[in-house]
Design brief:
By secondary structure, this protein is an alpha/beta fold. The chain is about 45% helix and about 15% strand. It contains nine helices and seven strands, in the order βαβαβαβαβααβαααβ. The chain has helices at about 20-30, 45-55, 70-80, 105-135, 145-150, 155-175, 190-195, 200-205, 215-225, and strands at about 10-15, 35-40, 60, 85-90, 135-140, 180-185, 240. Strands 3-2-1-4-5-6-7 form a seven-stranded parallel sheet, sandwiched between helices. Strand 4, helix 4 and strand 5 form a beta-alpha-beta unit. The two termini are about 30 Å apart.
């Protein structure tokens, strides 16, 4: 647990991509700070998200974020169960890495539909609830790749760049309802980083001013801050949490 403490009793949060990694750490901190938390992941990870939620004492839900009907049902479930919805964290994502000339239409469409489409669908589904409450927090997960690009990730980079544009536009549109919309750009030890050969990982770590990749838990405090009451005057921000790599 970080030294920072947060206070979310009476708040309800949905975190997508929460079976493991960053999403699980986001959900864990919200839960430990008193929120009612819905951990969400893809149908293929239904067992993993149920196990993670069970260990926390939270609610696990399998949901296809590329389906409007499934996402709307998720929001309805959260509101019916907890009586309200205050925070959504759009973290769901997949990789289909290939050089541009090897990317299929399916590789392109699937990555954009999960990352960018999922962010859009859950945010849209939450807006009627947020508008009625005159309160809401949206935190999206983007990437350094969305700003600088990365070989083999044209689809991922495009999706993450799209999330930046979506975040800024949604922040302007939803501000009048008391809703803030922000994004983080993390740089942490994830399954993707873990799959890189050790020698290459060391080379990448050497390009980070702080000299290392963060633990996933180090991303959670920034996410919780952006969801907090104290961050109520912050919106449309893309917050790097990346050890200085974006300097």
């Amino acid at each position: 647990m970080p030294n920072l403490t947060f206070d979310f009793p009476g708040r309800t949060a949905i975190v997508t991509g929460a079976a493991r990694g960053l999403g699980l750490e986001f959900a864990r901190l919200f839960h430990e700070s008193g929120a009612t938390v819905f951990l969400v992941d893809a149908d293929a990870d239904a067992d993993a998200v149920a196990l993670a939620a069970g260990e926390l004492g939270a609610v696990g839900v399998a949901c296809d974020v590329t389906s409007t009907e499934a996402v709307e049902a998720l929001v309805n479930l959260a509101v019916a169960t907890a009586g309200r919805l205050d925070i959504i964290v759009n973290n769901a994502g997949i990789l289909r890495d290939r050089r541009l000339w090897k990317l299929s239409d399916q590789d392109w469409a699937e990555v954009l539909d999960v990352h960018l489409g999922g962010t859009f669908r859950l945010t849209r589904a939450a807006v009627p609830v947020f508008r009625e409450q005159r309160y809401g927090r949206v935190i999206n997960v983007t990437s350094y790749t969305g700003l600088r690009g990365n070989i083999g990730q044209a689809n991922y980079g495009a999706a993450k760049a799209g999330i930046i544009g979506f975040t800024k536009t949604a922040a302007k549109e939803l501000a009048t309802f008391g809703v803030t919309v922000n994004a983080i750009s993390p740089n942490a030890e994830t399954r993707m980083i873990g799959s890189i050969p050790e020698e290459k990982r060391q080379e990448l770590a050497a390009t980070i001013p702080l000299g290392r990749f963060a633990a996933p838990s180090e991303m959670a405090t920034t996410t919780a801050f952006l969801a907090s009451e104290e961050a109520g005057y912050i919106t449309g921000v893309i917050r790097p949490v990346d050890g200085g790599i974006s300097i």
